[in-house]
Give the backbone structure.
Amino acid sequence: MKKQKMAALITCILVIGLAGVWHCVVQKSQVKESIKVGFVYIGDESNPYVYNFIRAQKSIENQFGDKVQVVEKFNVPENAVEEPLVELAKEKCDVIFATSYGYGKTTKEVAKKYPEIQFCQATGDNANQNPIVSNYHTYMGAVYQGRYIAGIVAGMKLQEMISEGKITPQDAKIGYVGAYAYAEVISGYTAFLLGARSVVPETVMTVCYANTWSSYSYEKEIAKSLIEDGCVIISQHSDTTGPAVACEEMSQTDKYEVYHVGYNQGMTSVAPTTSLIGCKVNWEPYESAVIQAVLDGKKIESELDVQKEKNDAWGGLADNWVQMLELNEVIAAPGTRKAVKRAIDGFAKGQIKVFYGKYTGVNPLNPSDKIDLTKEYQENAKASAPGFCYQLDDIVTVKEMDTQQ
């Protein structure tokens, strides 16, 4: 009996030992000395949105050196992304970053066909929607935080103009060039407006949708139209420098004094006398962590020290996933830099409520869907993609352009 027990014990030890060795062998086999990384872009480096991604890509190349071989696909329309994705897969990429929201549906479908490749969709909202595809991931920065702080900067400039008698509180009007009436855009402009209203409570906003992410001439035309309507600060959720250039050109006349708040990249190079500040998503931390995870043969989300839900991840200012762009102190109101720092610290400590106050709103895509912000709406509470999709009553107006792009 004792011999049988001893034999069973020895067998058990051997099985456990062999399992451990097998685990080590498998884990070691998954570790890669180098990988191939694909990037799919909707434009090229002349587009601020794309250039922001390219900066992250170049940082990654410098960080990993010869451990990473990069393959890029530029100027890929959202309705034509399947072929470039398949090409990258056939080129044996280990991970592919798709960088425009409209790529999401197709990228997920392609990911099903290539389970050995990791597909990462920026600004996506469908990773955790059924059917779940284990090698398909989404990621985004909590950019509403940066938008709110940029709004504070705009509000302080409005207050300065009021104090100097250039405008009245009733003239505190912001114009916003939006791409589409998506939650991502609506969430951003609402956070921006509420940031401004935290300084000047009378501030209102006019939004005009371009119905495209990127059209320099049309974005510029929209911005000029908003300025002619009396907007004294212009901001944007569109991809080109058109709105910033419109502000700079219009401000050179004696008729208009107008300022700009940007997105994705600093705009002082094209609007040196009107660009106040901007914010951006910093894509580098996520993409760097993904590449390291793939090199090490580990699950991507397990290597991310930020908010995450299954195959979706997001971070904010405190995580360096969102950044404020350079403040133009030549034109910013006195005390603005300190106000920006206070707000950044406030977000880090969880002290700032953005989507909160005596406001009501309606979903423009579903008029029966309404919201009351006397109960705070917590953006990015459970997902990386912005979810606030309500046009606030009385303080936000949507302008329709007479001309088409």
Summary: Residues 106 and 237 are 23 Å apart (CA to CA).
